[in-house]
UniProtKB/TrEMBL annotation:
InterPro entries, alphabetized: EPS_HpsL-like
Transmembrane parts of this sequence: 55-80, 92-110, 150-169, 189-213, 225-248, 317-335, 341-359, 366-387, 450-473, 485-507, 513-530
UniProt region (Disordered), positions on chain: 1-26
Keyword rRNA-binding: no
Protein name: O-antigen polymerase
Keyword vocabulary terms for this entry: Membrane, Transmembrane, Transmembrane helix
Keyword check for Membrane: yes
Compositional bias segments (type: Basic residues): 1-18
Length: 553
């Protein structure tokens, strides 16, 4: 019996042996080749550093003479960042995602310059150019997925017509000025170019994200990085609130009249930009790490989707618990930030995710996360009942004073009547960030804003684009077999669905949603390839027969 048992154990061990992968021993020639490659990479890095630094310092010196240090420093940094982003697009894209939530804080630490508002594009634009060249060289599609090609071309063509005929017409034939009136100084073409960049400029992020992720390791790195960013930003946001409460930061509490209710940069508290903190009036609007309070609100809303996805989809228990902590911090910041839209939409999005992704039926993972979240929030509510009640009262007062549905309808009616032509009143004419280049109109809802800028043809084209994107995203995540990938894909699809048809305010125009919407659409479309890759890895013989499509990026 003992012999039989020993034979069984030997045969069992022999079956397990092929599963263990031993690191291959490199020959002398291979080691020398690796050493030469590392030496070449270091040389290329140092050459690029010396050239870009020389050009940057020369340009910075000229700008310093004519415009001062506030123009010179961003120019030097911009040259360095763009040079390295073009040379190392993968690392630059990760740097871009890290920079986005801290952009507002960095902007005001370096110096409050309008140029710095576009600093993140010094990462993104060279990456997009480099990727386009790589795709051409390797004969890979740049537009991913192919289904969006037709509506994207349509809305792009419509926007270019608006840029040429409306913005161009305004540039060549400015409106007549009265006898005693001063002509408005504006650059309609520049306004249109910036408006087009805001409108469609981040669509290539779909492709960037698609090619950034090569395998499961890259995917987990990206999703976990996002959780770390959420934890850091929410931690800083809550610290900002505490600094205001204890009086280290004054906020707007000592101001008078209308200034008590207006966000101002002078009240800035270490992180982010303009804020309102007037406890005597029950008013608080925190910017977190962003430039403006409502950008912080939309960071919290969008982060709900990412924290939920990782909380239910990550294979590591540690990272699922970490995601639970980030989700709790999101809820806490939604309350203390004073942003009514965050207070309303963060729990709404959480419930919507539970229902639409089917995770409410996944009791094994839902119960620990649900119980943990309820306990954390319960403690927060019990220890701060006055703060919670103030936020709820503020939300109800605002809702009763201006119901969102009535506000949206009113905006549609107003802009339908006031748009100048069927192809719009001009790109950038309702884009807040373009106001430095010309006169703009404040439109506080997204699709009426698009209607005003690019007319009925442009808004129909963009609506078709997001329709196709949403429908393709649904089919994509439904095709995934791997449970974890499918769960993450479902969460990203719900995010795309929610943002595509949301018209309250204009999150698709500014950070962070303008970036996250297109980037995580690319992540969603990559998941079927990762799913297929997992199957091939499980069957080495089959994997060896197939050559994987891998971009050198």
């Amino acid at each position: 019996m003992a012999k039989v048992k020993s034979k069984f154990q030997k045969s069992k061990n022999s079956k397990k042996q092929p599963a263990k992968k031993e690191a291959p021993t490199l020959s002398l020639q291979e080691r020398l080749a690796q050493k030469r490659q590392a030496t070449k990479a270091r040389k290329e890095f140092m050459d690029l550093l010396s050239k870009s630094l020389s050009i940057g310092l020369f340009l910075g010196f000229l700008l310093f003479l004519f415009a001062g240090i506030k123009a010179a420093l961003p120019a030097v940094l911009g040259i360095l960042v763009m040079s390295f982003s073009y040379k190392y697009p993968r690392q630059a894209l990760i740097g871009f995602m890290i920079y986005v939530p801290f952009g507002g804080t960095i902007t005001y630490y370096i110096g409050n310059s309008p140029i710095l508002q576009l600093a993140k594009d010094s990462f993104y634009v060279p990456v997009a150019i480099a990727l386009w060249q790589i795709c051409r060289k390797q004969k890979l599609p740049f537009i991913v997925p192919q289904q969006i090609k037709i509506p994207l071309y349509f809305v792009l063509a419509s926007s270019l017509l608006t840029l040429v005929f409306i913005n161009g017409g305004q540039q060549l034939n400015p409106p007549p000025v009265g006898l005693l009136q001063t002509p408005v100084k504006e650059i309609p073409i520049g306004l249109g170019i910036l408006g087009l960049k805001v409108f469609l400029g981040y669509v290539p992020l779909i492709t960037c994200a698609y090619y950034l992720i090569r395998d499961k390791k890259d995917f987990l790195l990206l999703t976990r990085l996002q959780i770390v960013l959420i934890l850091i930003c929410c931690g800083l946001g809550f610290l900002q609130y505490l600094l205001l409460v204890v009086g280290i930061c004054e906020g707007t509490r000592n101001l008078e009249g209308a200034a008590l209710f207006k966000a101002t940069l002078e009240a800035r508290c270490y992180f982010g930009g303009a804020l309102v903190y007037s406890p005597s009036q029950g008013i608080i609007r925190l910017p977190g790490t962003f430039v403006a309070p409502w950008q912080w609100a939309w960071f919290l809303i969008s982060s709900t989707f990412f924290a939920f996805a990782t909380g239910f989809s990550d294979p590591s228990v540690l990272w699922r618990l970490t995601s639970l902590g980030s989700l709790a911090l999101i809820f806490v910041n939604a309350v203390v930030s004073g942003q009514r839209i965050a207070l309303a939409l963060v729990p709404t999005c959480f419930v919507m995710l539970l229902l639409l992704t089917g995770q409410i039926a996944n009791l094994k993972r839902f119960i620990p996360i649900g119980v943990g979240l309820v306990m954390i929030l319960g403690i927060a509510v019990v220890t701060n009942p006055v703060v919670v009640q103030e936020r709820l009262d503020s939300f109800l007062v605002r809702w009763n004073a201006s119901p969102p549905q009535d506000f949206i309808i009113q905006q549609f009616e107003e802009n339908w009547k006031n748009v100048d032509t069927p192809i719009g009143s001009g790109l950038g004419r309702a884009t807040n960030s373009a106001r430095a280049l010309g006169e703009t109109k404040l439109v506080e809802t997204y699709y009426p804003k698009v209607l005003y800028e690019v007319g009925i043809f442009g808004v129909l084209g963009f609506f078709a684009l997001v329709n196709v994107l949403t429908f393709t995203g649904f089919k994509t995540y439904r095709s995934i077999k791997n449970r974890n990938f499918r769960s993450y894909g479902a969460s990203m699809w719900v995010f795309i669905l929610f943002i595509s048809y949301n018209t309250y305010y204009y999150p698709l125009d500014v950070d962070p949603v303008a970036v996250y919407y297109w980037f995580f659409a690319g992540v969603l479309f990559k998941l079927p390839a990762l799913d297929k890759q997992e199957k091939e890895d499980a069957d080495p013989e089959k994997a060896n027969k197939k050559k994987r499509l891998q971009i050198k990026f």
